[in-house]
């Protein structure tokens, strides 16, 4: 098994690591986890992010 990094991008982005036999299985697992709400994209995932870096 290998570990694949999957990047979810909607309004926010999130990187998760999925252990799978191949890329297709990793993508399917990530999709299934997202659909079953095991992976949720929301602002709480980004609490440690310094938004001040991008302010004018």
From TrEMBL:
Residues 4-48 form the DpnD/PcfM-like C-terminal domain. It comes from the Bacteria. It holds the Pfam family DpnD-PcfM. This is DpnD/PcfM family protein.
């Amino acid at each position: 098994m290998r570990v694949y990094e999957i990047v979810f991008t909607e309004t926010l982005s999130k990187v998760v690591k999925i252990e799978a036999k191949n890329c297709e299985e990793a993508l399917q697992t990530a999709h299934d986890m997202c659909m079953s709400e095991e992976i949720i994209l929301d602002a709480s995932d980004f609490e440690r992010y310094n938004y001040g870096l991008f302010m004018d």
